[in-house]
Amino acid sequence: YKRQICFIGAGFLIEILFRRIFLAKYFVKIPTLNLNDHGQWDKFTGSVAQILPDFIGLIFFFFGAYFAFTLVFWVDSAWVELVFMAVLIAVTCIRLIQIISKLIFSPTNGQLRVVPMQDRTAWLSHRLMVWTFAYIIAGLMFAVVARRLGAELETVRLLQLIIATLLIVLTGFGILKCRKQIQDNIIAAGATDEQSPSWGRQQFAKIWHILALLYLAILWLLLLSDLADPSVEGGGAFILSFFVVPIWMVADQLVQWVVSYAMSTLRIHQDEYEDLDEPSEAEVIQRQKGKALYLKVKGLARMLLIGAFIVWVANLWHIRIPFFSDLASFMLDSI
Fold it and tell me: Which residue has the higher pLDDT, 295 or 135?
């Protein structure tokens, strides 16, 4: 095990050398820009440029550690190689999730944040996403290694159930602890476009934690049903269902950008108007009508997306809804 840790460390050393020699020479530090008034696409490209050195460094880390192990460590032992690859894949996947989370939440730079939220909420969401995925990946790698080393299928399924149950219980405690903060964020998110939060949003903010706990309970029962049936093969339904909210947040931003771009292209509504002269009264009225139509279309698109995600999650657990299941699959494949 000490030698395996040394080879993982060799991967980090190769990455550090790459950063010092190559990145320091060919990658310059991104200057501080004011992107508050820019669109989501500009923020996304700026965030990609920010995490690109981390992604390239991760590639050097993985292959550096792998080739260091295969070229230096000559041991004819399948389980030693299995454990090393499990550790290497786990570390790489966790770091990849960290990079993706930085791309989505941008915890250190609010100007590059694609998903609109407060700095503290973004930092907390980033930490929760990374630590949760780290727990899941470590649990999955442990179950895979146990299965490859000869553990019975029933033992592995029981281990998966214990890991998932602990994750759901901890998530439930986290929901209850952050209930008031998320309630305030839900209401604040509705106070956009110079509109006050709707009555429905305010009521949802009061009961969101009850719905979340109910969803976790249903998720646990579905997982228990699948693990109890030997004929059901796991296809990642639990992981995708557990992270349905972050996935929806990204998809929602994409849909909202499409709606905004379409409205701007059709000259129905624009976020900002570059007027050289004072607009006439008729133009002001027309813009107000365009904005009202834009808000209705945006709300309708969000509701359709929520419905598509509900049907999609049902499909993951082999719960088919006639017509809507195929329609939801087509919509999400398009996104």
Answer: 135
Please list, in sequence order, all residues whose beta carbon lies within 8 angstroms of the beta carbon of residue 285, skipping any fewer than 6 positions away: none
pLDDT-derived band at 41 (thresholds 50, 70, 90) equals low
Reduce the secondary structure of the chain to three states and give it as a string.
Answer: CHHHHHHHHHHHHHHHHHHHHHHHHHCCCCCCCCCCCCCHHHHHHHHHHHHHHHHHHHHHHHHHHHHHHHHHCCCCCHHHHHHHHHHHHHHHHHHHHHHHHHHHHCCCCHHHCCCCCCHHHHHHHHHHHHHHHHHHHHHHHHHHHHHHCCCCHHHHHHHHHHHHHHHHHHHHHHHHHCHHHHHHHHHHHHCCCCCCCCHHHHHHHHHHHHHHHHHHHHHHHHHHHHHHCCCCCCCCHHHHHHCHHHHHHHHHHHHHHHHHHHHHHCCCCCCCCCCCCCCCHHHHHHHHHHHHHHHHHHHHHHHHHHHHHHHHHHHHCCCCCCCHHHHHHHHHHHC
Q: Which two tokens stand for residue 180?
A: 């008031």
Rounded Cα distance, 122 and 118, in Å: 6
The predicted structure's pLDDT at residue 28: 56
For residues 48-76, give the mean pLDDT: 82
* Confidence category of residue 90, pLDDT binned at 50, 70, 90: very high
